[in-house]
Amino acid sequence: MVRKVRALGCVRHSSNSAPRTCTVHAHAHFSPSAATTNMEAGDHATGLAWALLSCVLFGSFGVPIKTPAVVNAKVDPVVFQCYKTLACFSTCWIALLYVPFKFTYWGFVGAAIWVVNGTCAIAAVQKAGLAVAQSLWSGLSIIVAFLWGVYAFGEVPKSTSLAWCAIALMTAGMVAIGYGAANKGGTPCKPHTDGDVDSEGAHVEAENLIRDEDGNVKYASKTSNQQFVTGVALATYVGVANGSFAVPLKYANQSVKGAEYLVSFGIGALLLTALMASAYAALLRFGLGRPLPNPHVAIAAKPALATGILWSAGNACSIFAAERLGLSVGWPLVQCQLLVSVCWGIFYYREVTSTASIGLILGGSLVVLAGVALLAQYGA
């Protein structure tokens, strides 16, 4: 008679006449590779969550200063930037509650990209029009960030061909959204990119606006060919610089990590904005003979500071996303902030009223989301 006794993975064969023997089969064992895979999957999911939160914050940071009182005050874009930088500098110190103070000059490089980029973005919109400028720099930002990640920092995707397909889909969708938002809307949606200093505060002169047959405001093409070419060149720079915005962070990672970078960025933003504002004031006063802009403290200070806080929170989330997903995946995903800002324009501000434009925006959004899903799966 043979009986099998199974306990805790042990199978014991015994008989009445033979000595009992026990054969132990290891049904489970610890696998370091499996543990690593689980950790990577956790980081991937966390990175996607940070990217999503960054999109919401970046796409919403312009909402506080789009109130009628602020818009009617026509606050100078440089004044907006000063308020926004003050909020960025003030909030960056919160990071010291979680990490030690570490300084890196790479934070100054990132801040320089941020400050200069926004000024160029405003000029690009004024010279080339919102549709061309926004679409061009949104698409370029995605492509440039992917190129940096894959070819400069060796972030090898799971499938290079499918990752490029995802980038192409996201770029095409961004172009469609940009044209839909700018060509047939009420008050054209302002682009919300992390490199955008204050495009939401840039007020195009009234003579540059016309109304179409439906009564919707749109940008008129009253610029000369030279101005248009200049605008395209500026928008190209904005796209390249915005796609490179997280590059200083990658180099800074040799000495600082994530939240530690924020303090250096905040200090750099304050110093560089002070230099820009001083140069701007000198140009107005001594070069052009114009008065200094009104700071509109009572009207604009609180909304502009709220905008700066939202942007700073979005910037922190984008850094955490890029750390976990890499520059080639994290930063392109963050550019989906455009979807959020356009949703604000359509559903809250009613800026886009044309059925054709809304259809183009929704179609472009679906294409972008398809690219996002593909990149999240095969780009990491």
TrEMBL record:
It is a multi-pass membrane protein. SUPFAM superfamilies: Multidrug resistance efflux transporter EmrE. It comes from the Eukaryota. One of its GO terms (molecular function) is carbohydrate transmembrane transporter activity. GO terms for cellular component: membrane. Keywords: Membrane, Transmembrane, Transmembrane helix. It is found in: Membrane. Pfam families: TMEM144. The chain crosses the membrane at residues 105-124, 136-154, 160-182, 228-249, 261-283, 304-322, 328-349, 356-378. Its main location: membrane. Coiled coil: none annotated. The keyword Membrane applies. PANTHER family: TRANSMEMBRANE PROTEIN 144. Belongs to the TMEM144 family. This is EamA domain-containing protein. The lineage of its organism: Eukaryota, Viridiplantae, Chlorophyta, Pseudoscourfieldiophyceae, Pseudoscourfieldiales.
